Amino acid sequence: MNLVSIRIITGDVGRLVTFYETVTGAEAVWANDVFAEIPTAAGTLAIGSDKTVPLFGAGSAEPAANRSAIIEFIVDDVDAEYARLRGQLQEVVTEPTTMPWGNRALLFRDPDGNLVNFFTPVTDQVRAKFGV
């Protein structure tokens, strides 16, 4: 079994796709006007409209209601990413900080309030874990 994607349900697909294209530098692949994907080497961030929720089951997902999951991206240099994005992020939760588990991390929220973590492994042990 392999994790291939994480899907965010939103009330504004275009806004969220634009945000993730900006922060990742990846171009979205649009299936239609209610679903797009941001591909990465490790997996895909899928973005779907709240209009698709009834296909899964009425009320099964709610846009802009997440306060438990963190969407994480490994980056070459978290400080450089912060410098690049600083003026474009509406809410920075934690400026680049070295965490006790060996990552230097930047946490911010996307336009729907989902928590996003950009991190760079900084200890030998964690660099080995991620193969960087």
Describe the structure.
By secondary structure, the protein is α/β, with parallel strands linked by helices. It has two domains: 1-48, Signal recognition particle alu RNA binding heterodimer, srp9/1, CATH 3.30.720.120; 70-132, 2,3-Dihydroxybiphenyl 1,2-Dioxygenase, domain 1 (Roll), CATH 3.10.180.10. The chain is 23% helix and 36% strand. It has a four-stranded mixed β-sheet, with helices on one face. It has a four-stranded mixed β-sheet with strand order 5-8-7-6. A hairpin with a 4-residue loop joins strand 6 and strand 7 (103-109). The radius of gyration is 15 Å and the shape is globular.
Q: So how many helices? A: 4
- What is the rounded distance between the termini? 24 Å
Q: Per CATH, what is the topology of the largest domain?
A: 2,3-Dihydroxybiphenyl 1,2-Dioxygenase, domain 1
Q: Number of domains in the coordinates? A: 2
Class computed from helices, strands and strand pairing: alpha/beta
Brief write-up:
With 132 residues, the protein is α/β, with parallel strands linked by helices.
What's the SSE blueprint?
Blueprint: E1 5-10, H1 13-24, E2 29-32, E3 35-39, E4 44-49, H2 53-56, E5 70-74, H3 78-85, E6 91-98, E7 103-109, E8 115-121, H4 124-130
Parallel strand pairs: 1-4, 5-8
Antiparallel strand pairs: 2-3, 3-4, 6-7, 7-8
Question: Could you name the key traits of this structure?
Answer:
4 helices; 132 residues; alpha/beta; 4-stranded mixed beta sheet; 2,3-Dihydroxybiphenyl 1,2-Dioxygenase, domain 1; Signal recognition particle alu RNA binding heterodimer, srp9/1
